[in-house]
Amino acid sequence: MNKQELDEKINAAFSELVIDKALVRQLKISEKRTIPSFVEEWLITRFQKPGKDYAEIYQDVTGFMSKHLPAKNEKEKIKYQLYSGNSVVLLDRFEVEVKVAQNRLSLTIPCLDETNATLSDEVLVKNESLLTGGQWGAGRLFLRDEGKNKVIELVEFNPMQSGKVRLEQLIKAREQFSTREWIYLLLRTMGYEPFAYTEEQQNHIILRLLPLVQNNLNMMELAPKGTGKSFIYSNLSRHVWLNSGGGLSQAQLFMNLNTNKVGLLGGKYDLLVLDEGQSINFKGADDIHAKFKDYLESGQFSIGGKKVSSECGLMILANIDLSYGGDSPKQNDYIRHLPEMFHESALLDRFHGIIPGWKIPKFSSDSPAQGFGIKADVFGEYLHQLRTVSYVEFPFGNPPELKGNYIRDVNAVRRLVSALSKLLLLNPEHPDYQEYVLNPAIDLRQRVRSQLAELDPHEFSKPMDVRF
């Protein structure tokens, strides 16, 4: 299969749900303003019409952004327009918090650094996604009186959404693709050009999607710099929170006891990604260590007399040194590149898999997608749906019976198998299941097991016993 044949097949299967990723890259909209790819693609789709050339599309998109997506240094100008009695339409990631004690709804508008705006019940009823980690869209704002004060109110909201993926449509489309061709589609959708990578490299890259389709899946990717580890997490789904290095406290991760506000692992997001994992400074590391162990094992944590349950997964991305040849980690116990708390076997054991980022080449000029893929916002919602869909509606992800002499190994492989089955739409009876689902899942967990053996050789042996 060549690029043209792949484009034709993707277009035939998904029609209005796809976009030319090469066009998105060539327009370079994100160089005008830093926005996620799913927002960039939504804007291009909105203004891309038959007969328009690249220059016209670019002018329309950037003109819309200049008017409705203000730079940070323009926030006071926007507020002054509101102060002067005018309504303003902004494109932003709006988020609502229900403040029960104060009997009000609190709206966050990031581009204005506003955390205490409000909205009408009517707008919220029509857009409940504003309550679940926020929603990108075009919102009309107005300044109204609230007692002796004035408050910014969201009076109208049009969510950014190109279309919905019906799961039955996805299943039907999958029948037209071989497993390798489906991997091509996934890579294109992620923003990678499949023909720039070997099949082995392709198989490793798509593993980055697994914690987006499976609840409470905890993984790591350890690799040298420049392999694009964090790219998809910041660009593919509004249900992901990417934290880039720096310090993290118990309040930020779990719960702020002063405000009773649940932290990043509390369920607002599908996945918390800790980028630059080797340089994270955990403030109050002992308390965080204990809560990590509890949460990664059970999906629950206790704090301040409260017990919180969540389905949020954890992905840690970290840079490691490679051997002279560049094809393997420089040291056998490469887990020691991470902060000290992860050097304890009891915590590491709660991670389900390690992606071998050292087997993925650095992102180069040939790496970006050069053809059609599913629109990022559509694909992000599809991945979100797969986390909770019933087996009746989506008959994939039900693993075969697995056996082994260590339950955590078995449970980890089971969760990884479920995620790969849903991602690739393969069931145990399919001839590709062993190669593309079961073997990769075992390999992911085997790397965890190998690091456990490096940290605690008296407790763990390197070979892992999982079978079916």
Q: How would the blueprint of this fold be written?
A:
Layout: H1 3-14, E1 18-20, H2 21-27, H3 29-32, H4 37-47, H5 54-68, H6 75-83, E2 88-99, E3 104-109, E4 114-119, H7 121-126, E5 135-146, E6 149-159, H8 167-174, H9 179-190, H10 199-205, H11 210-213, E7 218-223, H12 231-235, E8 240-244, E9 247-249, H13 250-253, E10 255-256, E11 261-262, E12 271-275, E13 281-283, H14 285-298, E14 300-303, E15 306-309, E16 313-319, H15 345-348, E17 353-356, E18 372-374, H16 376-386, E19 403-404, H17 407-424, H18 433-455, E20 466-467
Parallel strand pairs: 4-6, 7-16, 7-17, 8-12, 9-13, 12-16
Antiparallel strand pairs: 1-18, 2-3, 2-5, 3-4, 5-6, 10-11, 14-15, 19-20
Helix pairs in contact: 4-5, 4-16, 9-10, 17-18
- How much of the residues is beta strand, in percent? 15-25%
**Which sequence of strands runs across the widest sheet?**
2-3-4-6-5
Helix fraction, binned, reads 25-40%
CATH class of the largest domain: Alpha Beta
The gist of it:
The protein has 18 helices and 20 strands. It is an alpha/beta fold and 468 residues long.
Q: What does this entry look like structurally?
A:
This protein is α/β, with parallel strands linked by helices and 468 residues long. A hairpin with a 4-residue loop joins β3 and β4. α4 packs across α16. The protein has three domains: 15-69, no CATH class; 76-159, OB fold (Dihydrolipoamide Acetyltransferase, E2P) (Beta Barrel); 198-366 and 389-467, 3-Layer(aba) Sandwich (Rossmann fold). It is globular and about 70 Å long. Strands 2-3-4-6-5 form a five-stranded mixed β-barrel. The relative contact order is 0.12. It has 18 helices and 20 strands.
